[in-house]
Amino acid sequence: MSVENATTTLVVNPTAGRGRALKILPKVLNELLRGLPEGSLRVRQATTFQEAKLFCEEAVRTARVTADTRDCLVVMGGDGIMHLGINAAGGTEVPLGMIPAGTGNDLCRSVGIPLDPIKAAHVIAEGHLLKIDLMSVVGQLAHGSTHRYVGTVVNTGYDARVAVRGASMAKAWGSLAYAVAALAELRSFEPVTYRVRIDGEERVLPAMFITVANGGYCGGGMHVAPTASMTDGLLNVTIIHPVSSLTLLRLLPRMFNGGFVTDPAVERCTAREVIIDGDGLTGIADGEALGQPPLGLTCDKGALSVFVPNPDPLARRRKKRKK
To answer: Which helix (H) or strand (E) holds 96?
Structure first.
């Protein structure tokens, strides 16, 4: 990192990826320490979701961000701990580093962070920052909150039910859990009636699901918003209109490469504000429980600074030569 005497707080979920995070932690630490010769590294291993939340919030609350010192928060694990990281650092000047070690890693995919944990640690050590957008959600949300930041996608229909089922199957199926859950949910799912308002235009319509995306991926690599940008200040809305189970089954594999968007049943648009409501809907965000609709969704442009790969790989070499 370029700022001296900075403190990097690494919050780890050691059980992420069915224990993978704990196994690779020493190599990740070595990679980070190589890039922090003038700073300090503080490691917090969380045993519970609540403990991880407290560690992240403490790191941001006590961080020093000045012209001479830039403390940062780094989270390592799956999308759950990434979600905690963006909610702790979002709306502040504290940079966030993300090291994927889970089964989904959708936020890292969306940002463009390498899915190899060692390479992701190297990205943080290089110190290149990018301001990205976050989705801001308001409503009566899970755990008694009324506001939450979301990095990737808000799911509410068939996709939300798949996410809930997939989470319960993750230990047994790993990265295949979402696909297995999707097939299981097909047997009983029927279209639901949405009441939505997209940039002030109200609509009542049946749909298999409506996703609202800030990033491109959800469900362990499903490319549900292939044209999404995390720096344009816009949300991407995808509507799957009512189709047969057979048609939805045909679309599922194409969701992993984004090819499903050419199907006539798919409607897409961008928006600055979306309100989602409807009976029997469940909100899921970044793979975590979000709460029951109505949900108010907006894009908070440039709300978070994240470590990303340097777009100019020769920049650091030139900088070193000047020194």
So the answer is: strand 96-100
- Judged on CB neighbours under 10 Å (0-12, 13-18, 19+), 137 is buried
Pairing type for strands 72-77 and 96-100 reads: parallel
SS percent in the chain: helix, strand, coil, step 5: 35, 30, 35
DSSP string, 206-267: EESEEEEESSS-BTTTB-S-TT--SSSS-EEEEEE----HHHHHHHHHHTTTTGGGGSTTEE
d(CA 236, CA 238): 7
pLDDT tens digits, residue range 45-88? 998 999 999 999 999 999 998 877 889 999 999 999 999 999 99
Sign of the four-CA dihedral 27, 13, 147, 232: positive
Nearest by Cα to 3 from 43, 41, 36: 36
pTM above 0.85? yes
**3-state SS, residue 88:** helix
- Residues 6 or more apart whose Cβ sits within 8 Å of residue 272: 199, 233, 234, 235, 298, 299
197 CA to centre of own chain:
24
Q: And the tokens for 309?
A: 């790969």
The single residue listed with the structure tokens 């949900």 is: 295
pLDDT computed for residue 36 by the predictor: 73
- Assess whether pLDDT exceeds 60 at residue 34: yes
Cα–Cα distance for residue pair 169/175, rounded to 1 Å? 10
